[in-house]
Structure formats: C-alpha cells, structure tokens
From TrEMBL:
Alphabetic keyword roster: Methyltransferase, Transferase
Record protein name field: Class I SAM-dependent methyltransferase
Keyword Acetylation set for record: no
GO terms assigned for molecular function: methyltransferase activity
Single GO BP term: methylation
InterPro entries, A to Z: SAM-dependent_MTases_sf
Length: 279
C-alpha cells in the first residue's frame, strides 16, 4: 500500500485522488443449507455408511415407513438407497410433494397415505425401518400413536424417533409466538426421561438417545424476535447468526465447540429403538 501511494503522488502537481479500498464480496450464508450441513455433522444423511442417522442403516431390502413425512428429506435419503418407501402425513400437499420428490430416486416402490395416523392404514409388521421425527409433540395421545408405530413394524425393525429437546423448548417460552405452543403445533414439552419411557412403554427397546441442534435453537430464538415470515426469513439478525455459526464450524475447534453447545441447548433429541424379535 505504501509503494502504491508513492507512485500516485510522485511528480504529480495536483493532490492525489483518494484510493477506495476494495471490499471483498462475501456470499450470503443460506441458513437452511447451513442447518442441513450442521445436521450432517451430527451424523444425519451419511452417504458413506448409508445411515440416515448413526445406528440407522438403510439398504435396498428395507421397507421404510415415515409417519409425518413433512417435506420428505428423510425418505428421499432412503429412496436413494433403493428401499421401498411408505409415507404417511395428515397434510395431503406434503404427501404429494414428497411423492414427486421421490420420483428421482431408485426407490423400488412408493406407497402414500394421507391420514391422521389414528389408526395407520397400514398392515401389522409392514416396515423394517420406521421413522417419525418431530411429530409426537403434536399428537393428542402419544401412547396410542407409538402403539401404532410399534404395530406396523416387523419384529426386529429399527425405529428413528425425535422430538424437540426441552432445553430448546424452554428457551422459546415467552419469546415464541403464542401459537407455537398451541394445537396443532407443540402441545407438550417432552423431557428426556418421558421420551425414553414413552418409547419403552410402547414395547420398543431403546438403543441410543442423543441430542443435537444448538444452531437451530438459537436461530429460532432470533427468528421470533426478527418478526419475519418463515417463508422469507431474511433479517440482519438471522443472517448474522448464520454467518457467525459458519465461522464457528470453520474454526480449528469448530466441531468441538458445536458438540459442547449441542450438549447444553439442543433443538432435538433422537432415539434409535428396536422392536423385539418374536419369541
């Protein structure tokens, strides 16, 4: 910079024009793509091991049932592994969009149900893999819902179940919009002990219980404060948080920091369970 200034001023009778420094253009961090990346760091969507989540392997021989399929991210991963896919959701539009999304996968079969899951219109012992993420906190009768999930699994079937972690839910209290904790949204906060008991009482064996999602917990907290719409969540606070978290993950000890924070405030808790083999 000093040599540049000398060249600009040497032998010039008029004062040198000020030099405007170049400002690097930084690509905006997509908070949802960052959230997906953060999830993969927690073990989701492992393309090397074909595990949807650690301990939940998907193979072409599996029949995967996703109850409350939402936007279909989980079953798309399973469909890419060639499994048979069965989806069920109360929202017909989500079922249809997920069906279309599965069209570009090598899933060996696709079966769709629009249902409130009470009961599930699915035969006993249908699935080798049962997925239901962020659903139980919405239903009126968790015991009945889990009994249905247990019924439709084959003996030995694996279950991937998740609900919001109480650390994140309690953080949202008094800040989230009132409807966040009203039907049809989150009508209960489920503790770790309650979650394990619910799954065990349904006759399933809990194999693992973990948590993740500090990034999303903080993002949601800032989302309520930002006042923007979820479909267009563009706000300086949200953008700054995504940029900060990206820098954290890129730092030398980013994974260690993420793990420590996930252990303190987590968006979700995840149980892998198994249906006992028939005696």
């Amino acid at each position: 910079m000093l040599s540049l200034l000398k060249k600009l001023t040497a032998g010039t009778p008029a004062p040198a024009q000020p030099v405007t420094p170049e400002v690097a253009v930084v690509d905006k961090v997509d908070p949802f793509q960052l959230g997906l990346f953060d999830a993969t760091l927690s073990g989701w969507f492992n393309q090397q091991t074909n595990e949807l989540f650690p301990g939940f392997l998907i193979s072409p021989e599996d029949t995967v049932l996703d109850v409350g399929c939402g936007d279909g991210g989980n079953v798309h991963f399973c469909g890419m592994r060639g499994a048979k896919i069965v989806i069920a959701d109360i929202d017909a539009a989500k079922v249809e969009s997920t069906r279309q999304r599965l069209g570009d996968t090598p899933a060996r079969d696709i079966e769709c149900h629009v249902t409130d899951c009470n009961p599930l219109p699915i035969a006993d012992g249908t699935a080798t893999r049962v997925v239901s993420t962020e659903v139980i906190e919405h239903v009126d009768d968790p015991a009945q819902f889990l009994a249905e999930l247990a019924r439709v699994g084959k003996p030995g079937a694996l279950y991937l179940l998740s609900v919001p972690h109480p650390s994140s839910e309690n953080l949202q209290k008094g800040i989230a919009a009132p409807e966040y904790f009203e039907k049809p949204n989150h009508i209960r906060i489920i503790t770790e002990e309650q979650f394990k008991a619910m799954v065990s009482d349904a006759g399933l064996e809990v194999l693992s219980h973990s948590q993740y999602g500090f990034y999303w917990s903080m993002w949601m907290l800032l989302f309520w404060e930002s006042g923007v719409d979820l479909g267009n969540a563009d706000h300086p606070m949200l953008n700054s948080w995504a940029e900060t978290w990206q820098k954290v993950l890129d730092s030398p000890r980013g994974a260690q920091i993420k793990s420590a924070l996930d252990a303190v405030v987590a968006k979700s808790q995840v149980i892998i369970a198994r249906k006992p083999l028939a005696e």
